[in-house]
Every structure is written in C-alpha cells, then in structure tokens.
Amino acid sequence: MSNVTLSTLRRMKQAGEKFTSLTAYDAAFAHVLDEAGVEVLLVGDSLGMVVQGKDTTLPVTMDEMVYHTQMVARGSRRALVMTDMPFLSYATPPQALANAARLMKEGGAHCVKLEVHGGMVDTVKHLADYGVPVCAHLGLLPQTVHKLGGYKVQGRDSDSANEMIACAQAMAHAGADLLLLECVPSRLAAEITAAVDVPVIGIGAGPDTDGQVLVLYDMLGITPGKRPKFSMDFLPPAGSIAGAVGAYVQAVKEKRFPGPEHCVD
Ligand code: KIV
After folding, report:
1. Which of 24, 38, 56, 80 stands the most exposed, by the fewest C-beta atoms within 10 Å?
2. Measured from the CB, is residue 143 less than 6 Å from ligand 1?
3. How far does the centroid of ligand 1 lie from the alpha carbon of residue 178, in Å?
4. Distances from the Cα of 64 to the Cαs of 44, 51, 101, 184, in angstroms?
5. Residue 244's domain spans which residues?
C-alpha cells in the first residue's frame, strides 16, 4: 500500500470512498493503526485529557505535542500524521507559522490542525502560503470550552449554521487542505461537505462527511466516565485492539458507522 497523502484523500472524496482517522499518541498504537489501514493518525491535544488525565485540553504544551508527534511518526509507515496545534500556540500568523514549523520539522507531522473561527482566515492563509498543510477544525472547539460553557452541539440554529458554512468556505478558499467538523447536526455536516472541494472529516457529525475520526481510547472503551453518544466501543465484539481498529475501518468504509444512534441531531 502506498503512503497516504492529501492527494489520496482528495481522490477518495471525489470517488465517494470514505476514509478513516483515529487519534494516536505513541508509537505502539500508531503501528497498530497504520497496519489496520487507518488513513490519518491524529495526534490530538485530547491527549491532555485521555493520556494525562487533565480536565480539558488547554494545558497541553507545544513541547508535549512535538514529543507525542515524534512517537507517532516513528510508529507509522504509510498513514498521514496530523497534529493539533495546542491552545494559544497560533494566536497570530507568525506565531502559528513558527509553531507549525516545529511540529513538522522536529515532530515529523505532515499536517497541522487548528481550531478556527471566521477571524482566522489570515492565519490559515499565512500557513498555506508557506506550504504548511492545514486542517481547519470547526463546530465544537474544545479549546474554547470555557467560553462555550461546556461541550455542546454547535450549529443548531440557522444563524450559527450559516456562519459555519461561510467559515468552512472561507477556510477552504484561504488554503486549508482539510476540514474537521466536531459535534454538528448531520444535515449541516452534509451541506458543508458538499459545499467545499477539500475533504471533510467528521466526529459526531453524521454519516455524510468524507472521513470519520474518533478518539482512540473512546473506541477501545478505556476512557474513564461516560462515552460520548457519537462514539462506539469496538473492542468487545472484536476481542483485540487490532481487531477493534480493523472493525472500525471496515464499518466506516462500508458506511455502517456512524449509524443514526451516533448522530447528535
Ligand atoms: O484532539 C482531538 O482528539 C481532536 C478530535 C476530537 C477530533 O481534535
């Protein structure tokens, strides 16, 4: 199997073929995911919560993201490695560029992900102008949890839905290579996916995005507390970690996951 690149994901979108992504935080899991055919390994800042046991993703540092990206890059052979830029590491375009450079040059990331709003077009354009592959994360933005007042579904009313559609189009126009939608109604996610040429990854965004992502520890049933409605524990029926990851890949490809019970509508 050849290496997964942004062109691979664009081709898959055009062909209507679903692709998969899971979070990975170390070399051992990266190897398992890579072997199972997961196209995108996301070094998510969710590591602050699921690995470090913190309450939010906000305390995660650049040094930690570089460290975890190095491990994931070492453990994978063919997948695209995408890394989250942590909270306040991209507050200005020059700061974003300097930190994205660290994640790519020191960490080995192929792409960086930023939580965006409409005012960040210049930042995305600046990164794109310098050849940094960017994923723009819209919808529920965990780094703004204190402003949002909790982890809530976004884009439910027509004003916020229209704002999200406009933001998605602006990000693609500014040079974002991928979009990620978190916790948005399925109909809105389908509309955004159809409105942009770039591949769209969803989590809690229904079945119609081009790709799906889950937090690895949620889909293995080892995240403490209640599992989010949009996730699923693939481990018990599969009986092994590799089997669970393989079952997830197959379920996404065959459009069996996410089902209606995983939608946040
Ligand atoms: O950090 C993360 O794991 C993420 C996913 C929720 C998409 O951004």
Report:
1. 56
2. no
3. 14
4. 11, 11, 15, 29
5. 6-262
Q: Domain holding 208: CATH number?
A: 3.20.20.60
Give domain status of residue 128, yes or no.
yes
**Locus of tokens 């080995």:** 108
Q: Do residues 132 and 177 lie in contact, with contact meaning Cβ atoms separated by under 8 Å?
A: no
Q: Give yes or no for residue 23 CB within 6 A of ligand 1.
A: yes
Q: What is the number of the ligand 1 atom nearest to the C-alpha of 203? A: 7
In tens digits, what is the pLDDT along the chain, a chain of 265 residues? 789 999 999 999 999 999 999 999 999 999 999 999 999 999 999 999 999 999 999 999 999 999 999 999 999 999 999 999 999 999 999 999 999 999 999 999 999 999 999 999 999 999 999 999 999 999 999 999 999 999 999 999 999 999 999 999 999 999 999 999 999 999 999 999 999 999 999 999 999 999 999 999 999 999 988 889 999 999 999 999 999 999 999 999 999 999 999 999 8
Q: Ligand 1 centre from 173 Cα, in Å?
A: 23
pTM, two decimal places? 0.98
From the CA of 115, give the closest atom in ligand 1. Answer: 8
CA distance 111 to 21: 13
Residue 93 — φ and ψ, nearest 5°? -55, -45
d(CA 131, CA 116): 19
Asked if the structure places residue 108 within a domain, the reply is yes
Establish if 258 belongs to a structural domain.
Answer: yes
| Domains contained in the chain, number | 1
Nearest-CA residue for ligand 1 atom 2 is: 44
Q: Give the CA diameter of the chain.
A: 48
